[in-house]
Amino acid sequence: MIRRVTEHSTAAPRLDAAVASRLKRDDAGLVAAIVQQHDTGEVLMLGWMDDEALRRTLTEGRVTFWSRSRQEYWRKGDTSGHVQHVRSVALDCDGDALLVRVEQVGAACHTGTRTCFEAGGDLRAAVGGAV
């Protein structure tokens, strides 16, 4: 049976088709979302979004991710109070990564640190120089 969407339909909203067609998802249907503090450029964390998480992020003004471990949506800050207010969302040239610029309230990392990369730590890479 084909369900038609009409004025009176209560069909769930979907991600804009023009946006969805530009995404290159992994095998699980996810796109990496790099989260950055909008005014300082500080990289806060990496999360994963499917079409619905991206739709919510684009339309609600708060960042929503797909939790790969819990297999559910989670809106950053709903339980911790460490909210991410969306300032902009951009798609990279290949369509396989998003840059979500936010106003971060509190810690971005679940460990309580400002960034997830602070919590993970420096791997002491060799520093290269310009030629």
TrEMBL record:
Known role: Catalyzes the hydrolysis of the adenine ring of phosphoribosyl-AMP.
HAMAP family in the record: HisI
Keyword line: Amino-acid biosynthesis, Cytoplasm, Histidine biosynthesis, Hydrolase, Magnesium, Metal-binding, Zinc
Subunit annotation: Homodimer.
Family stated for the protein in its record: Belongs to the PRA-CH family.
Annotated InterPro entries: PRA-CH, PRib_AMP_CycHydrolase_dom, PRib_AMP_CycHydrolase_sf
Molecular functions (GO terms): phosphoribosyl-AMP cyclohydrolase activity
Subcellular location: Cytoplasm
The reaction(s) this protein catalyses: 1-(5-phospho-beta-D-ribosyl)-5'-AMP + H2O = 1-(5-phospho-beta-D-ribosyl)-5-[(5-phospho-beta-D-ribosylamino)methylideneamino]imidazole-4-carboxamide
Enzyme class: hydrolase
Cofactor: binding details: Binds 1 zinc ion per subunit.
Protein name as catalogued: Phosphoribosyl-AMP cyclohydrolase
Chain positions recorded as Zn(2+) binding sites: C93, C109, C116
